[in-house]
Amino acid sequence: MNKRQNKNHFSYFSFLDMPQKDPCQKQACEIQKCLQANNYMESKCQAVIRELRKCCARYPKGRSLICSGFEKEEEEKLTLKSTLKFC
Fold this sequence. Notes:
By secondary structure, this protein is mainly α.
């Protein structure tokens, strides 16, 4: 591979390695705005929290860093349900 090809080769991979915008970033920002406007009372922001959950449900696990907290929460619920079956 000559220098010109090599340069293009690295440019191509650099493009692939660029971080992508999180698909649920907009909803996460809306939650932050809502919480700030309502003195961090989650009960006042349930509608925007539901919108974030809907967004997270549209993407495969691991696609959204923002959704990773919800994914962990779901895993914990499943573990708890399976544990309760044995009681």
